[in-house]
Design brief:
Layout lengths: L2 H21 L8 H28 L5 H35 L10
Helix pairs in contact: 1-2, 2-3
């Protein structure tokens, strides 16, 4: 049952990755456009993750409909704030180092 939270935590960055790939944005957040894509991708991915986790909880009978709405909203707000607070400095600081890795998947071509 708790696997759904772990799966949700996998889904969220994949949604961000998909949005960045589709928008052709740079994860180093160098330009205003990259920052706007980031500002849109984080809440969207947090909402998708929150919807997933709380819908699974609802379907398994762990929560009821009124708590589904509260859960999705609090997950959306909390996850978005956490990712903006922690993820933004990490992206800006560490992306340059990650780009030097031979396993980096963001090759422009």
């Amino acid at each position: 049952m708790w696997l759904d939270g772990g799966l949700g935590d996998l889904i969220a960055p994949l949604v961000c990755l998909l949005i960045f790939k589709l928008a052709k944005a740079d994860p180093e957040l160098r330009t205003r456009r990259d920052k706007v894509v980031w500002a849109l991708a984080v809440p969207i991915s947090s909402l998708v993750c929150g919807l997933w986790v709380h819908t699974v909880h609802l379907l398994f009978g762990i929560i009821t409909w009124p708590f589904w709405y509260v859960g999705v909203l609090t997950y959306f707000i909390g996850d978005s704030l956490a990712v903006f607070t922690v993820g933004t400095p990490l992206l800006k600081t560490l992306t340059g180092y990650v780009k030097q890795s031979p396993m980096y998947i963001w090759r422009r071509g």
